[in-house]
Amino acid sequence: MSTDVFSPAERSAVMRRVKGKNTGPERVLRGLLTRMGLRYRLHRKDLPGAPDIAFIGRRTAIFMHGCFWHGHDCRRGARQPKANADYWIAKIGGNRARDAANTEKLLAMGWRPVVVWECELKDEGALQARLASLFKS
């Protein structure tokens, strides 16, 4: 018996609406980078993992990761769904493995991969300081 409040068809419709690009957290991050005076390119498909934000001249790729979807060790990311747990454990594990493979590929290409976690957006000042330290030169 499923504990889901939606029928399978309704759940499928809900999951189809989960965006992969231009999410709210990604737009907040882009706004912060723009206010810092940094210019960037979006979703470069020619780079492993199609980073959300790419600084071509600085060879830096930024990935905006959702804590739940990428298995962050914060409170939200460590949460395990009770319904269909085996699926979600495999799904998040696969996401983490893919993230690690993309990081290795970028490093081999001479790029600097940077992950910004969704929970980091709660303290914009700290995130801005972290990003500023990346681009000092």
Backbone shape: globular
Number of strands: 4
Strand proportion, as a percent range, falls in: 5-15%
Percent in helix? 40-55%
Q: CATH top level?
A: Alpha Beta
Number of helices: 4
CATH topology (level 3) name: Endonuclease, Chain A
Please report the distance between the alpha carbons of the first and last residues. Answer: 58 Å
Description:
The protein has 137 residues and is α+β, with helices and mostly antiparallel strands. The chain has a single domain (20-134), classed as 3-Layer(aba) Sandwich (Endonuclease, Chain A). Helices cover 41% and strands 12% of the residues. The protein contains four helices and four strands; from the N terminus they run H-H-E-E-E-H-E-H. It has helices at 8-16, 24-35, 85-108, 124-134; strands at 41-42, 53-55, 60-65, 112-117.
Features:
Endonuclease, Chain A, 4 strands, alpha+beta, 137 residues, globular, 41% helix, 12% strand, four-stranded mixed sheet
Quick recap:
Helix content is 41%, strand content 12%. By secondary structure, the protein is of the alpha+beta class. The protein has a single domain (20-134), classed as Endonuclease, Chain A (3-Layer(aba) Sandwich).
Task: Please give the structural blueprint.
Elements: H1 8-16, H2 24-35, E1 41-42, E2 53-55, E3 60-65, H3 85-108, E4 112-117, H4 124-134
Parallel strand pairs: 3-4
Antiparallel strand pairs: 1-2, 2-3
